[in-house]
Amino acid sequence: MSEPRKIRAPFPLQETQAYWDGADEGKLMLRKCNSCGRAHHYPRQICPHCQSDDTHWFEASGNATIYTFSQMLVGPQPYVIAFVELEEGPKMMTNIVDCDASKLEIGQKLSVTFVKSDNGPNVPMFKPLT
Amino acid sequence: MSIKGKAYIVGAYEHPTRKADDLSVARIHADVAKGAILDAGLTHDDIDGYFCAGDAPGFGPASIAEYIGLKKLRHIDQTETGGSAPIVHVAHAAEAIAAGHCNIALITLGGRPRAAGGVLALKPPDIDAPDLQFDIPYGPATQNLYAMVAKRHMYEFGTTSEQLAWIKVAASHHAQHNEHAMLRKVVTVEDVVNSPLVSDPLHRLDCCVMSDGGGAIIVARPEIAAKLNRPKIKVIGVGEAPKFSYGGDIDFTYSAAAYAGPKAFAEAGITPQDIKYASLYDSFTITVLMQLEDLGFCKKGEGGKFVQDGNLISGVGKLPFNTDGGGLCNNHPSNRGGVTKIIEAVRQLRGEAHANVQVKNCDLAIASGIGGALASRHISGVLLMERE
Chain A within 8 Å of B167 (Cβ-Cβ)? Predict the structure, then answer.
């Protein structure tokens, strides 16, 4: 096995700090709108679906399915980048880790895991449910 | 108000360089500006509108406008939509001309990423961008942001790597006739699918080249176009639209061209079936496939079937595309292919394309661009042109 891939640190904004703080505590935090009832990702104060500013944080289940993915083969180490559909509805960009990339399939079930970024917070990633 | 018939493309110029070791970015912009101005039969002092995008260094459009030597400007626009920007700029130039804000607009694009060491993103990320912090940890790169769309297309519609490969094959058939093209060797479907995977399912030959260079376009009002001794290329329809992640409500089966295309065709009063030649943004083979479907050249999901068996090869298939070899084989200056898409369409409409790829009676053409990344956020620009 080669060296683990260096995860580039995000640059949290005041508006998103709770997301990254949650990741450091092992929680996938999502934002939900009290007005239209929908969750969204990436999290923001103003609901992207109905523009209400009446939104709140909640902890997501961490369950997701693969919407699409690609194994990136150029660069220092291969890695799997993906969009996954969260159980709560939104899709998000992520990496799929702890997996055999050749066995991944669209629709496959995943659960959240957290990987430390380089000089930054934990980052939510996903691994296959076994 | 419509821009149909309100503006003409009267000048076009493509920089011959593909590796600009001895040219600054500013010099490339100035070279292409001069080339297009001479092509139109104008002078620098005739230019009263100037358009550039994020590839122009310095303070907005000011630094490069000064370097080029534009002294009579009364309209400026630095709309940034990535690689599609010059196509959007033609639309905005036509609008400005129709509104009386300028008479003759110059659009320039130029860069030297190859001479600078082959770096895709030259600028550090904008830390105030609300969305990038949720991308950057995951290693998004242009290749994988298009590969993920290709993967989903294959899952939804049964599209194959061999079908995508036909797009590269067609581009290579055209590039063999272009003395400036970086990749002039004709390739086969097998060559493409046997080239190394870059980001699965995209192979190295599914990707465009990285090149230096640039190009420029001149757009003028009808009365001026009538006085110039050049073929008259009329702007008849334009469309532009973004597509993004919609709070996670994501659908990768279509691109922003699905919004921009119908608007342009409605304005022009024509259908995709009327088009004789298509310049389609080809950062990757999948980019072309998505535009073919979203612009209405075939039904959604049938792009793979449409491109098979040389259907995009001039003189062979029904829809000749990118007859200069496109981004896939010719060039992709400054990692932005929009201006060369317009230039080759203008060549086709003027009857000035290479004799081996010139489309007969080419009177209607499209230039379509996708700027940004298909999977995360991108902006489509569509331009329809008619030879009078």
Answer: no
